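note to self — DONT lose this again. spent like an hour looking for the file last time. sequence + predicted structure for the chain T wanted, 83 res
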Amino acid sequence: MKQRLANYTQLIKMRLSLLVVFSAAMSYLWATNRHVDALTIWMLSIGGFFITGSSNILNQVIERKSDMLMKRTALRPLPDSRM
């Protein structure tokens, strides 16, 4: 179970996804200097995370064959046949 979670974390590029969501949320807070709506920030964060994660997954699906050939990317979950 722990390995499966690690594979999913690597597949969605968790750190990159969280950085994108953080920058979007901070930009929203900076742009709305009068009224901060918690629901909007929550929806922006969740939606942004899903969009970023899914685009990272799609990118890795498309590039899985070329990732097999490169040392740096050969151990990702898809080229390594862990998923």
